Amino acid sequence: MDLKGRMVIYAQDIMIFTGRSRSFAYNALNEVRKQIGKSKSKLLTFQEFADYHGIPVSELIQSVQKGIQKKRTG
Question: Quick one: residue 43, left, alpha or beta (phi over 0 = left, psi -120 to 50 = alpha)?
Fold first, then answer.
């Protein structure tokens, strides 16, 4: 998986970023959706997630990208 051009954040990305469980990641996504007024069926962007949590989006993306690369190499 490569993040180039991808705007949508998934639970797996949150798991990589936080080091927490899948259920935590889904709860985090749902919490952000609820607070910004998106339904459960709508996707979240890295920007929306980062803004809600006060994280620079560039740091979020870099961290997830490093985690993906680390996973690939072993």
Answer: beta
Q: What is the pLDDT of residues 45-70, one digit of tens each?
A: 999 999 999 999 999 999 999 998 88
CA separation for the pair 56, 1 (Å, rounded): 21
14-22 own/partner pairs: CB under 8 Å, 24+ apart: 14/49, 16/63, 16/64, 16/67, 16/68, 16/71, 17/60, 17/63, 17/64, 17/67
Q: What average pLDDT does the chain have? A: 93
CA distance 18 to 41: 23
Distance of CA 29 to the CA centre of its chain: 8
